[in-house]
Every structure is written in structure tokens, then in C-alpha cells.
Q: What sequence folds into this?
């Protein structure tokens, strides 16, 4: 159940009420001197403050497997292992990037 913030125009007080959404309209009808105050919604999660969600090793391994099956893609650049590519492949890739082919 959410907590709602209200302002009483008679007493000029702000207060919180904890009630189901279904009771909110009824509460406002029974208390005509009370106005609901908008409140910012709190969002929790790992994505806050510039910190991305952490992935487990299984996800990374799966992405590496997909990257190996699709060389030359941005996914391969990010998750592919450069140790499995030859020096020639790496240099060719860099030249293609430099000239805007990739």
C-alpha cells in the first residue's frame, strides 16, 4: 500500500496517510479541506547513480560465445577475445575502421 502526503488547509499542516489506492478517492471526498500533495517517486535499483547492473559470469560467457560466432560486429568488439584473433585479423580490422568501412 502506498503512502500519500496531504495538506490540511484549515490547520495548515502536512501529513502522511498509509492506505490502499482504492480508498484514496473516498478519503478525499470525506475530507474536503484536505488536498493531496504531489511527491516524487522513489526508484530503487542498481542502475541508479551511473552504476549499471552487474552481470554474472554465465551471461558474459554466453555473450563471448555469440561474439565468436559473429566476428566483425560491435558485439564481437566488446565481448570477443582478442587472444583468439590473429595479428593480421586485428590489423585488418583497425584499417577498415580507420577508413570508415566498419
A:
Amino acid at each position: 500500500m502506498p503512502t500519500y502526503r496531504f495538506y490540511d488547509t484549515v490547520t495548515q499542516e502536512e501529513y502522511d496517510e498509509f492506505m490502499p489506492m482504492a480508498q484514496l478517492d473516498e478519503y478525499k471526498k470525506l475530507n474536503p479541506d484536505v488536498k493531496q500533495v504531489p511527491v516524487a517517486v522513489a526508484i530503487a535499483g542498481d542502475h541508479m547513480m551511473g552504476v549499471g547492473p552487474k552481470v554474472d559470469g554465465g551471461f558474459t560467457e554466453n555473450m563471448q560465445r555469440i561474439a565468436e560466432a559473429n566476428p566483425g560486429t560491435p558485439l564481437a568488439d566488446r565481448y570477443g577475445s582478442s587472444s583468439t584473433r590473429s595479428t593480421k585479423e586485428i590489423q585488418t580490422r583497425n584499417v577498415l575502421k580507420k577508413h570508415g568501412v566498419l
The beta strands are 3-8, 13-18, 34-37. The mean pLDDT is 83. Helices lie at 21-30, 57-69, 74-79, 87-98.
